[in-house]
Amino acid sequence: MQPVLAQPPVATSPGAPVQVVDLFKAYGEVRAVDGVSLDVRAGEFLALLGPSGSGKTTILMTIAGFEQPTRGDVLIGGRLVTNVPPNRRDIGMVFQRYALFPHMSVHDNIAYPLLMRRVPRAEIGRRVQAALELVRLAGYGRRMPHQLSGGEQQRVALARAIVYRPPLLLMDEPLGALDKKLRAQLQLEIKHLQRQLGATVIYVTHDQEEALTMADRVAVLHRGRLQQIGTPEALYEQPANSFVADFVGETNFLDGRLLACRDGVCTVALAADLTVRAALPDATYPALAPGAAVRVAIRPERVRLARLGPAAAEATSCSGVLLERIYAGPSVACVVRLANDITITARVPSDQDPSRWFVGDPLLVSWRAEDARVYPAER
Ligand SMILES: Nc1ncnc2c1ncn2[C@@H]1O[C@H](COP(=O)(O)OP(=O)(O)OP(=O)(O)O)[C@@H](O)[C@H]1O
Ligand SMILES: [Mg+2]
Predict the structure, then answer these.
(1) Higher model confidence: residue 179 or residue 138?
(2) Of 9, 119, 218, 372, which sees the most CB atoms within 10 A?
């Protein structure tokens, strides 16, 4: 028999790595989760992003142990926990609706997980105090939940989740019930807190902005399937498919037929006399055959507008007519009609004075081929 060598711990972070291996979860006919694998690093902040019903909560509940997978496994800290009950997985959880005990004071709410773990009384007082300070609610211990604002209640829920320093924190839309400003503030606070604690965080949201600002990596889900996992920048700059391009950030989609591809750059006919250029999503992308129905995706801020004149040599360009100009503070959305009634939106920084263009003006529309992506058309 081979001697078993003790492995020295490699992680310097107190966070636990999490592996989800080929997870399936069916409710009757519904495949809530359809073959998802995730490899979350120790101390990483991973966002699970997707529209309603895409399987985010189901994945989180399976990691927590409140749901049993139909197939697949979950490992926390390298330990197989698929059959371990939730209370023995050492996880802190925060949900969308503040699940505070309404009849208990803030102090007692936060002390609860420590009582469950039979931590000595003197120690409990000290740790509750420290947790309250971490969420910036020192002095609130004696209040009852109904005497707190929504944001304060959510911070108490956070304090309760972190008070026993779990190596893994699971959060399901914890800021969903709060207004935009408070959300933004608490997003930063949670992020700072996570860095301080070093815990691994898996954070469910359907808000792409929240996912992009908070997470080290984002996993995009759609109909129970993982569409792409990557850094916010990779998701935004190199969406793996048209769903991700559509869900993360704003995108123009232009439907057409592929004419040819060469060195990763394709020409696409949108109409009889309207041909544009766009890049393949990445070098490994399966080849698209000439004649295939495709969609070209281009971000509004990458679309350039100019008065009609000679086009830049590297650019794909076409002429259009300004249909609408929508002021939005830092930028102005300009909707331009191209040939065949195809419309495209360009987002122009306000300081570039798009107000010098008027509805009905003829404009030159262009973009760099590498800023646009070509995807197979959805069936
Ligand atoms: N207990 C259940 N019984 C039957 N179907 C369920 C159950 N729980 C979830 N589902 C279904 O599984 C799918 C995924 O649900 P899930 O709650 O994971 O989605 P979600 O991404 O969290 O959505 P939301 O953003 O609305 O919270 C949905 O189609 C849902 O209707
Ligand atoms: Mg959910």
Answers:
(1) 138
(2) 218
Partners of 290 in beta bridges: none
Kindly give the distance from the C-alpha atom of residue 68 to the centroid of ligand 2, in angstroms, as a whole number: 16
pLDDT tens figures, 246-289: 999 999 999 999 999 988 899 999 988 899 999 988 766 667 88
Quote the CA–CA distance of 255 and 340 in Å, as a whole number: 12
Distance 52 CA to ligand 1 centre (A): 8
CB of residue 327 inside a 6 A radius of ligand 1? no
Q: Is 29 in the pocket of ligand 1 (CB under 6 A)?
A: no
User: Distance between alpha carbon 286 and the CA centroid of its chain, in Å?
Assistant: 25
pLDDT at 339: 85
Instruction: Give the closest residue (by CA) to ligand 1 atom 24.
Output: 52
CB 267 within 8 A of CB 277: yes
CB of 66 closer than 6 A to ligand 1? no
Residue where the block lists tokens 């997985």:
89
- pLDDT for 181-217, tens place per residue? 888 888 998 998 899 889 999 999 999 999 999 999 9
Report the separation in Å between the CA atom of 50 and the middle of ligand 1, taken as the mean of its atom positions.
Answer: 12
Sheet holding 18-27, edge to edge: 30-40, 18-27, 71-76, 79-80
Domains along the chain?
A: 18-242 (3.40.50.300), 250-376 (2.40.50.100)
Q: Catalogue the long-range contacts made by 211-215 (C-beta closer than 8 Å, 24 or more residues apart).
A: 211/47, 211/49, 212/236, 212/248, 213/187, 214/45, 214/47, 214/187, 214/190, 215/45, 215/46, 215/47
Alpha helices by DSSP H, listed for 65-170, are: 106-116, 121-134, 150-162
Q: Is the shortest distance between the CB of 57 and ligand 1 below 6 Å?
A: yes
Which ligand lies nearest the alpha carbon of 32?
A: 1
Residue 30 beta carbon below 6 angstroms from any ligand 1 atom: yes
Tell me the pTM. 0.87
What is the enclosing helix (H) or strand (E) of 192?
A: helix 180-197
Count how many Cα atoms sit within 13 Å of the Cα of residue 358 in the half-sphere of its side chain.
Answer: 0
Report residue 65 as tokens. Answer: 């142990």
